[in-house]
Fold:
Amino acid sequence: MIMTAIITVIGAYLLGSINFAVIFTKCFTNSDVRDFGSGNAGTTNVMRVGGFLPGALTFVCDILKGFFACYIGKLMFEYISSNSAAVYAVPIYGAYLCGVACILGHIFPIFFDFKGGKGVAVSVGIYLVCSPIAILVGLIIFAISFFASKIVSLSSLVATVVVVILSLILYNTSALFFPQAVLSVIMGIIIIAKHSENIKRLLSGEEKRLSVKRR
Structure:
């Protein structure tokens, strides 16, 4: 059964490695989004390079791949738990482990030269499975911050911190709290680390507001 768990996590990484930013920009503009703008293979840069439609498709598909990676992980660990005495096979552990694997696949995609996005949209899908209340609050916080600033990176960072903190608060009485807390914090750290250049620009007042290319 341990091999089933390992294969499930590897599958989540491979699913994360399907980079829709590169795919949709190639389809709509016949170019690689990583060659333009910030060089990031994510929703914001797709909108700047290709326009609203490919950006929206990227955002939705990234959410879906995060959701399905975690949901399948949860189901597979539930299956392992019901068919063995494996103490590690707790469904929520499978969801979080596959979430981390999916984010790593998105950021370092094996199919796209290990050069991917920052994991924000993917994390929305992940937390819809792992901590839906936290992500719904986080989306509201993102919307408020973006409405006020028009800066995606700032709004993403604020929302990420809120979601991670809420995911810890909501499960602090659970016997399964510690593993969930560790994996949730790891995902938060990964996303914040990928925004290091954005943080520098925010501190220097040089971060750009979102402008969508009109096609």
In short: The chain has ten helices and no strands. The chain has a mean pLDDT of 90.
